[in-house]
Design a protein that fits this description.
22% of the residues lie in helices and 28% in strands. By secondary structure, it is α+β, with helices and mostly antiparallel strands. The radius of gyration is 27 Å and the shape is elongated.
Length: 400
Amino acid sequence: MIAEIVFAAGCFWGVEKHFENLNGVVDVKSGYVGGNYAKPTYEKVLKYRKLPQNNNLNIINYTEGVLVKFDTSKTDANKLIKSFWQIHDPTQLNRQGNDVGNNYRSAIFYTNENQKNIAYSTKAKYQTLLEEHGFGKIVTQIKPLQKFYEAENYHQDYLEKNPNGYCPNHATGVKFEKEKQLTKDFITPLKGREILVIKAEGFCPYCEKFEKEVSSRYKGTIPLRTVLEKQLKDFDIKTKLDVTPIILFIENGKEIFSHKGYLNEKEFYEQLGAFKLGKNTESYNVAFNKNTDSRFCKQYDIFKNTPDGVFVDKVSGDILFDTKDRFNSKTGWLSFYKAVDDSTIEKPDYSYGMNRVEVIAKKSGIHLGHVFDEFGHRRFCINATVLEFVPRDKIVINRQ
Protein backbone atom coordinates (compact mmCIF):
# COMPACT_ATOMS: atom_id res chain seq x y z
CA MET A 1 0.00 0.00 0.00
CA ILE A 2 1.19 3.53 -0.83
CA ALA A 3 0.80 6.07 1.99
CA GLU A 4 1.50 9.81 2.17
CA ILE A 5 2.89 12.23 4.73
CA VAL A 6 4.24 15.79 4.48
CA PHE A 7 7.36 17.11 6.19
CA ALA A 8 8.63 20.69 6.50
CA ALA A 9 12.21 21.05 7.74
CA GLY A 10 13.58 24.22 6.17
CA CYS A 11 14.40 24.78 2.50
CA PHE A 12 12.54 22.03 0.65
CA TRP A 13 15.37 21.30 -1.82
CA GLY A 14 17.52 19.42 0.67
CA VAL A 15 14.56 17.81 2.44
CA GLU A 16 13.27 16.48 -0.87
CA LYS A 17 16.67 15.03 -1.73
CA HIS A 18 16.97 13.39 1.69
CA PHE A 19 13.68 11.52 1.50
CA GLU A 20 14.14 10.55 -2.13
CA ASN A 21 17.09 8.44 -1.08
CA LEU A 22 15.40 6.49 1.70
CA ASN A 23 14.42 2.87 1.11
CA GLY A 24 10.71 2.40 0.49
CA VAL A 25 10.05 5.98 -0.64
CA VAL A 26 8.50 5.92 -4.10
CA ASP A 27 8.02 9.64 -4.81
CA VAL A 28 8.76 13.03 -3.26
CA LYS A 29 7.41 16.43 -4.33
CA SER A 30 8.35 19.89 -3.12
CA GLY A 31 5.50 22.24 -2.38
CA TYR A 32 3.63 24.59 -0.06
CA VAL A 33 1.56 23.50 2.92
CA GLY A 34 -0.12 24.84 6.05
CA GLY A 35 -1.29 28.24 4.77
CA ASN A 36 -4.74 29.75 4.25
CA TYR A 37 -4.69 31.74 1.00
CA ALA A 38 -5.44 30.52 -2.49
CA LYS A 39 -2.90 29.41 -5.08
CA PRO A 40 0.40 29.92 -3.24
CA THR A 41 3.49 30.58 -5.33
CA TYR A 42 7.13 30.87 -4.39
CA GLU A 43 6.90 34.66 -4.79
CA LYS A 44 3.85 34.88 -2.48
CA VAL A 45 5.41 32.60 0.12
CA LEU A 46 8.56 34.74 0.18
CA LYS A 47 6.46 37.92 0.31
CA TYR A 48 4.63 36.81 3.46
CA ARG A 49 7.57 35.08 5.18
CA LYS A 50 8.06 37.88 7.74
CA LEU A 51 4.40 38.36 8.67
CA PRO A 52 3.79 37.91 12.41
CA GLN A 53 1.50 35.09 13.50
CA ASN A 54 -1.25 37.55 14.37
CA ASN A 55 -1.44 40.07 11.55
CA ASN A 56 -4.08 42.47 10.29
CA LEU A 57 -4.38 40.60 7.02
CA ASN A 58 -5.32 37.37 8.83
CA ILE A 59 -2.91 35.56 6.55
CA ILE A 60 -1.28 32.29 7.53
CA ASN A 61 1.69 31.75 5.29
CA TYR A 62 2.66 28.42 3.82
CA THR A 63 5.78 26.57 4.81
CA GLU A 64 8.09 24.81 2.35
CA GLY A 65 7.25 21.12 2.61
CA VAL A 66 7.73 17.83 0.82
CA LEU A 67 5.02 15.31 0.09
CA VAL A 68 6.49 11.86 0.69
CA LYS A 69 4.82 8.81 -0.83
CA PHE A 70 6.06 5.51 0.55
CA ASP A 71 5.45 1.79 0.19
CA THR A 72 4.29 0.51 3.58
CA SER A 73 5.58 -2.98 2.75
CA LYS A 74 9.15 -1.61 2.55
CA THR A 75 9.23 1.15 5.17
CA ASP A 76 6.94 2.74 7.72
CA ALA A 77 5.91 6.09 9.16
CA ASN A 78 7.99 5.51 12.29
CA LYS A 79 11.26 5.35 10.32
CA LEU A 80 10.35 8.35 8.19
CA ILE A 81 9.26 10.52 11.11
CA LYS A 82 12.38 9.67 13.12
CA SER A 83 14.45 10.59 10.10
CA PHE A 84 12.59 13.90 9.88
CA TRP A 85 13.48 14.85 13.46
CA GLN A 86 17.15 14.04 12.88
CA ILE A 87 17.73 16.02 9.65
CA HIS A 88 17.01 19.49 11.05
CA ASP A 89 16.81 21.53 14.25
CA PRO A 90 13.16 21.39 15.40
CA THR A 91 13.86 23.85 18.25
CA GLN A 92 14.29 26.80 15.88
CA LEU A 93 11.15 28.89 15.39
CA ASN A 94 10.42 30.06 11.83
CA ARG A 95 13.92 29.35 10.62
CA GLN A 96 16.59 26.79 9.87
CA GLY A 97 20.10 28.17 10.22
CA ASN A 98 20.44 31.32 8.13
CA ASP A 99 17.10 30.70 6.40
CA VAL A 100 14.77 32.99 8.36
CA GLY A 101 11.02 33.24 7.82
CA ASN A 102 7.76 31.46 8.61
CA ASN A 103 8.08 29.56 5.32
CA TYR A 104 10.96 27.62 6.91
CA ARG A 105 9.03 26.55 10.00
CA SER A 106 9.24 22.93 11.11
CA ALA A 107 6.08 20.86 10.68
CA ILE A 108 4.59 17.40 10.20
CA PHE A 109 1.30 17.07 8.34
CA TYR A 110 -0.09 13.59 8.95
CA THR A 111 -2.70 11.72 6.90
CA ASN A 112 -3.91 9.18 9.45
CA GLU A 113 -4.15 8.59 13.21
CA ASN A 114 -1.19 6.21 13.25
CA GLN A 115 1.09 8.91 11.82
CA LYS A 116 -0.30 11.42 14.32
CA ASN A 117 0.41 9.12 17.27
CA ILE A 118 3.93 8.38 16.05
CA ALA A 119 4.62 12.08 15.49
CA TYR A 120 3.69 12.95 19.08
CA SER A 121 5.39 9.95 20.69
CA THR A 122 8.66 10.42 18.79
CA LYS A 123 8.51 14.16 19.53
CA ALA A 124 8.43 13.39 23.24
CA LYS A 125 11.36 10.98 22.99
CA TYR A 126 13.38 13.36 20.83
CA GLN A 127 12.68 16.25 23.22
CA THR A 128 14.33 14.29 26.02
CA LEU A 129 17.35 13.50 23.86
CA LEU A 130 17.65 17.12 22.74
CA GLU A 131 17.57 18.40 26.32
CA GLU A 132 20.35 15.96 27.24
CA HIS A 133 22.46 17.70 24.62
CA GLY A 134 21.60 21.24 25.69
CA PHE A 135 18.88 22.07 23.16
CA GLY A 136 15.61 23.85 23.93
CA LYS A 137 11.96 23.04 23.29
CA ILE A 138 10.68 21.59 20.04
CA VAL A 139 8.49 24.08 18.16
CA THR A 140 7.43 21.77 15.34
CA GLN A 141 3.79 22.00 14.26
CA ILE A 142 1.95 18.67 14.07
CA LYS A 143 -1.28 18.98 12.08
CA PRO A 144 -3.53 16.98 9.75
CA LEU A 145 -2.83 17.51 6.06
CA GLN A 146 -5.52 19.69 4.48
CA LYS A 147 -4.05 20.67 1.13
CA PHE A 148 -0.62 20.36 -0.48
CA TYR A 149 0.26 22.61 -3.41
CA GLU A 150 3.09 21.40 -5.62
CA ALA A 151 5.83 23.98 -6.10
CA GLU A 152 6.91 25.27 -9.48
CA ASN A 153 8.69 22.81 -11.79
CA TYR A 154 12.11 24.38 -11.27
CA HIS A 155 11.89 23.50 -7.57
CA GLN A 156 11.28 19.80 -8.25
CA ASP A 157 14.47 17.70 -8.04
CA TYR A 158 16.31 21.01 -7.71
CA LEU A 159 19.55 19.54 -6.38
CA GLU A 160 19.64 16.91 -9.11
CA LYS A 161 19.40 19.69 -11.71
CA ASN A 162 21.81 21.96 -9.81
CA PRO A 163 24.62 19.84 -8.28
CA ASN A 164 26.19 22.89 -6.64
CA GLY A 165 22.87 24.14 -5.32
CA TYR A 166 22.13 25.32 -1.79
CA CYS A 167 21.94 22.40 0.62
CA PRO A 168 23.03 23.30 4.18
CA ASN A 169 23.06 20.79 6.99
CA HIS A 170 20.82 21.90 9.87
CA ALA A 171 20.85 18.60 11.79
CA THR A 172 21.51 18.79 15.52
CA GLY A 173 23.50 15.55 15.44
CA VAL A 174 21.21 14.05 18.08
CA LYS A 175 20.11 10.50 17.24
CA PHE A 176 17.32 8.31 18.58
CA GLU A 177 19.64 5.35 18.88
CA LYS A 178 22.62 6.66 20.80
CA GLU A 179 25.87 5.67 19.14
CA LYS A 180 28.65 4.34 21.34
CA GLN A 181 31.56 6.73 21.01
CA LEU A 182 34.64 4.66 21.82
CA THR A 183 38.13 6.08 22.01
CA LYS A 184 39.05 4.21 18.84
CA ASP A 185 36.34 6.19 16.99
CA PHE A 186 38.28 9.42 17.46
CA ILE A 187 40.87 10.51 14.94
CA THR A 188 43.89 12.59 15.91
CA PRO A 189 46.23 14.62 13.70
CA LEU A 190 48.80 12.95 11.51
CA LYS A 191 52.33 14.26 11.42
CA GLY A 192 52.77 16.58 8.46
CA ARG A 193 50.11 17.36 5.88
CA GLU A 194 46.75 15.72 5.42
CA ILE A 195 43.30 16.38 3.96
CA LEU A 196 40.14 15.91 6.02
CA VAL A 197 36.72 15.69 4.37
CA ILE A 198 33.96 16.36 6.90
CA LYS A 199 30.82 14.47 5.93
CA ALA A 200 27.28 14.57 7.32
CA GLU A 201 26.00 12.03 9.82
CA GLY A 202 22.82 11.64 7.79
CA PHE A 203 22.33 11.64 4.05
CA CYS A 204 24.14 14.42 2.19
CA PRO A 205 24.00 14.24 -1.63
CA TYR A 206 27.13 16.34 -2.07
CA CYS A 207 29.11 14.27 0.43
CA GLU A 208 28.28 11.18 -1.59
CA LYS A 209 28.97 12.96 -4.87
CA PHE A 210 32.38 14.15 -3.63
CA GLU A 211 33.21 10.65 -2.38
CA LYS A 212 32.25 9.06 -5.69
CA GLU A 213 33.77 11.59 -8.06
CA VAL A 214 36.81 12.85 -6.15
CA SER A 215 38.04 11.22 -2.95
CA SER A 216 37.50 7.59 -4.08
CA ARG A 217 39.64 8.32 -7.15
CA TYR A 218 42.37 10.21 -5.32
CA LYS A 219 45.87 8.65 -5.42
CA GLY A 220 48.02 11.51 -4.16
CA THR A 221 50.76 11.25 -1.57
CA ILE A 222 49.07 13.51 0.99
CA PRO A 223 46.72 11.34 3.12
CA LEU A 224 42.98 12.01 2.71
CA ARG A 225 40.50 10.94 5.38
CA THR A 226 36.70 11.25 5.36
CA VAL A 227 35.33 11.70 8.88
CA LEU A 228 32.46 13.00 10.99
CA GLU A 229 32.88 16.25 12.90
CA LYS A 230 32.36 14.46 16.22
CA GLN A 231 35.35 12.19 15.53
CA LEU A 232 37.85 15.06 15.51
CA LYS A 233 40.20 15.27 18.48
CA ASP A 234 43.13 17.64 19.12
CA PHE A 235 42.80 19.50 15.81
CA ASP A 236 43.20 23.28 15.54
CA ILE A 237 40.34 24.16 13.18
CA LYS A 238 39.09 27.72 12.66
CA THR A 239 36.40 27.05 10.08
CA LYS A 240 32.84 26.75 11.39
CA LEU A 241 31.73 23.22 10.56
CA ASP A 242 28.13 24.10 9.79
CA VAL A 243 27.69 22.57 6.32
CA THR A 244 28.86 19.42 4.56
CA PRO A 245 31.04 18.47 2.92
CA ILE A 246 33.91 20.63 4.19
CA ILE A 247 37.40 19.99 2.85
CA LEU A 248 40.10 20.89 5.38
CA PHE A 249 43.76 21.18 4.43
CA ILE A 250 45.72 20.40 7.60
CA GLU A 251 49.39 20.54 8.59
CA ASN A 252 50.48 19.03 11.92
CA GLY A 253 46.90 19.23 13.16
CA LYS A 254 46.40 22.88 12.27
CA GLU A 255 44.07 24.10 9.55
CA ILE A 256 45.89 25.89 6.74
CA PHE A 257 42.75 26.65 4.75
CA SER A 258 39.41 25.04 3.93
CA HIS A 259 36.60 24.90 1.42
CA LYS A 260 32.92 24.64 2.29
CA GLY A 261 30.70 22.65 -0.04
CA TYR A 262 31.18 20.42 -3.04
CA LEU A 263 34.25 20.69 -5.28
CA ASN A 264 34.49 18.99 -8.64
CA GLU A 265 37.69 17.11 -9.43
CA LYS A 266 39.48 19.96 -11.22
CA GLU A 267 38.58 22.45 -8.46
CA PHE A 268 39.76 20.04 -5.78
CA TYR A 269 43.14 19.53 -7.43
CA GLU A 270 43.65 23.27 -7.84
CA GLN A 271 43.07 23.70 -4.09
CA LEU A 272 45.32 20.73 -3.38
CA GLY A 273 47.95 22.21 -5.68
CA ALA A 274 48.02 25.41 -3.66
CA PHE A 275 48.34 23.33 -0.47
CA LYS A 276 51.02 20.91 -1.66
CA LEU A 277 53.04 23.04 -4.06
CA GLY A 278 52.55 26.55 -2.67
CA LYS A 279 51.11 29.32 -4.82
CA ASN A 280 54.42 31.13 -5.27
CA THR A 281 56.40 28.11 -6.45
CA GLU A 282 57.66 27.29 -9.92
CA SER A 283 55.76 23.99 -9.98
CA TYR A 284 52.44 25.69 -9.11
CA ASN A 285 52.94 28.30 -11.83
CA VAL A 286 53.68 25.57 -14.35
CA ALA A 287 50.74 23.42 -13.26
CA PHE A 288 48.06 26.09 -12.96
CA ASN A 289 49.38 29.17 -14.79
CA LYS A 290 50.86 27.29 -17.78
CA ASN A 291 54.39 28.50 -17.19
CA THR A 292 57.41 26.54 -18.45
CA ASP A 293 60.40 25.17 -16.55
CA SER A 294 63.73 26.77 -17.36
CA ARG A 295 65.92 24.60 -19.59
CA PHE A 296 68.06 22.07 -17.75
CA CYS A 297 66.39 22.99 -14.45
CA LYS A 298 67.37 21.23 -11.24
CA GLN A 299 64.39 18.85 -11.35
CA TYR A 300 65.21 17.91 -14.94
CA ASP A 301 68.75 16.97 -13.91
CA ILE A 302 67.31 14.75 -11.16
CA PHE A 303 64.79 13.03 -13.43
CA LYS A 304 66.69 12.64 -16.69
CA ASN A 305 68.52 9.46 -15.65
CA THR A 306 66.30 7.82 -13.03
CA PRO A 307 66.15 4.04 -12.64
CA ASP A 308 63.29 2.06 -14.22
CA GLY A 309 59.89 3.39 -13.15
CA VAL A 310 57.11 5.87 -13.83
CA PHE A 311 56.45 9.58 -13.51
CA VAL A 312 53.26 10.56 -11.73
CA ASP A 313 51.17 13.72 -11.51
CA LYS A 314 52.61 15.65 -8.56
CA VAL A 315 49.10 16.68 -7.50
CA SER A 316 46.81 13.71 -8.17
CA GLY A 317 49.34 10.86 -8.05
CA ASP A 318 48.15 9.39 -11.36
CA ILE A 319 50.75 7.67 -13.55
CA LEU A 320 51.45 9.82 -16.62
CA PHE A 321 54.73 8.69 -18.23
CA ASP A 322 56.95 5.60 -18.23
CA THR A 323 60.76 5.59 -18.28
CA LYS A 324 60.52 3.00 -21.07
CA ASP A 325 59.22 5.81 -23.29
CA ARG A 326 61.75 8.43 -22.18
CA PHE A 327 64.55 9.60 -24.44
CA ASN A 328 67.20 12.31 -24.39
CA SER A 329 66.14 15.04 -26.80
CA LYS A 330 68.99 17.30 -25.67
CA THR A 331 66.45 20.12 -25.36
CA GLY A 332 66.71 20.56 -21.59
CA TRP A 333 63.20 19.23 -20.91
CA LEU A 334 62.02 15.70 -20.19
CA SER A 335 61.01 14.00 -23.43
CA PHE A 336 58.83 10.95 -24.00
CA TYR A 337 57.61 9.19 -27.12
CA LYS A 338 54.14 8.87 -25.59
CA ALA A 339 52.06 9.26 -22.45
CA VAL A 340 50.49 6.41 -20.52
CA ASP A 341 47.18 5.47 -22.17
CA ASP A 342 44.19 7.58 -21.11
CA SER A 343 46.26 9.69 -18.69
CA THR A 344 46.47 12.97 -20.64
CA ILE A 345 44.43 15.28 -22.84
CA GLU A 346 45.75 17.22 -25.83
CA LYS A 347 44.33 20.50 -27.06
CA PRO A 348 45.41 23.32 -29.42
CA ASP A 349 47.47 26.10 -27.85
CA TYR A 350 47.82 29.40 -29.76
CA SER A 351 49.41 31.39 -26.95
CA TYR A 352 52.38 33.66 -27.67
CA GLY A 353 51.48 33.64 -31.36
CA MET A 354 52.49 29.98 -31.75
CA ASN A 355 50.59 26.94 -33.01
CA ARG A 356 51.24 24.14 -30.52
CA VAL A 357 49.47 21.21 -28.87
CA GLU A 358 49.21 21.44 -25.09
CA VAL A 359 49.39 18.30 -22.91
CA ILE A 360 47.16 18.30 -19.81
CA ALA A 361 46.81 15.72 -17.03
CA LYS A 362 43.37 14.19 -17.54
CA LYS A 363 42.34 13.90 -13.90
CA SER A 364 43.86 16.97 -12.23
CA GLY A 365 43.76 19.29 -15.25
CA ILE A 366 47.30 20.58 -14.62
CA HIS A 367 49.49 21.80 -17.48
CA LEU A 368 52.27 19.34 -18.30
CA GLY A 369 53.89 20.72 -21.45
CA HIS A 370 53.48 20.28 -25.21
CA VAL A 371 53.70 17.55 -27.81
CA PHE A 372 55.51 18.02 -31.13
CA ASP A 373 55.75 15.98 -34.31
CA GLU A 374 59.46 15.71 -35.08
CA PHE A 375 61.59 13.46 -37.25
CA GLY A 376 58.84 10.93 -37.86
CA HIS A 377 57.76 10.52 -34.22
CA ARG A 378 56.04 12.44 -31.47
CA ARG A 379 57.94 14.17 -28.68
CA PHE A 380 56.17 14.92 -25.43
CA CYS A 381 58.10 17.88 -24.03
CA ILE A 382 57.22 17.78 -20.33
CA ASN A 383 57.99 20.04 -17.37
CA ALA A 384 59.80 18.12 -14.64
CA THR A 385 58.59 20.29 -11.74
CA VAL A 386 55.00 18.97 -11.99
CA LEU A 387 56.05 15.31 -11.79
CA GLU A 388 57.18 12.86 -9.14
CA PHE A 389 59.16 9.67 -9.82
CA VAL A 390 58.16 6.22 -8.54
CA PRO A 391 60.50 3.22 -9.02
CA ARG A 392 58.74 0.36 -10.79
CA ASP A 393 58.97 -1.99 -7.82
CA LYS A 394 57.17 0.61 -5.67
CA ILE A 395 54.25 1.35 -7.97
CA VAL A 396 51.76 -1.11 -6.45
CA ILE A 397 52.72 -0.17 -2.87
CA ASN A 398 52.56 3.56 -3.43
CA ARG A 399 49.50 3.69 -5.72
CA GLN A 400 47.02 1.41 -3.99
